[in-house]
Design goal:
The chain is built from three helices and seven strands. The protein is about 20% helix and about 20% strand. The termini are far apart. The relative contact order is 0.18.
Length: about 130
């Protein structure tokens, strides 16, 4: 799938924007779409799309405090996109991304770690 050619298409199954799944994205596609500043944690668009300018920050803050970005009508967590962009891999099925300082929109590389669900829960309860 050429994501850049299909960027304006809406995935009918995600028309409500509630789905959040990177199963449909490859790390290569993420690298085509985004740039990442590990010091600031900002994910920016590497391409212009619709009303969004190349270089503008990707995503919006959701009601739970996470940054999420819409791609083809599907919302994706920025920290998951960042993991794919930095490592060139998808997150293993038994892992998730933990925000070490518990600030969900702080996507600086030093604040993100791969963790099991149990490890992530321990971090939530450590404060």
């Amino acid at each position: 799938m050429d994501l850049l050619k299909n960027i304006y298409n809406i995935n009918e199954n995600a028309a409500n924007g509630e789905k959040s799944n990177t199963d449909d994205l490859t790390p290569e596609e993420v690298k085509e779409l985004f740039n990442y500043d590990s010091k600031t944690g900002k994910l920016t668009w590497a391409v212009s799309r619709q009303k969004i300018q190349k270089g503008s920050e990707a995503g919006n803050l959701d009601e739970d405090g996470y940054m999420r970005t819409r791609i083809n009508g599907v919302l994706h967590y920025n920290h998951v996109l960042i993991y794919m962009l930095v490592t060139g891999k998808k997150i293993p099925e038994d892992k998730e991304i933990d925000h070490i300082n518990r600030i969900r929109h702080d996507n600086r590389l030093e604040n993100l770690r791969l963790a099991t669900k149990s490890e992530n829960q321990k971090n939530k309860n450590s404060y």
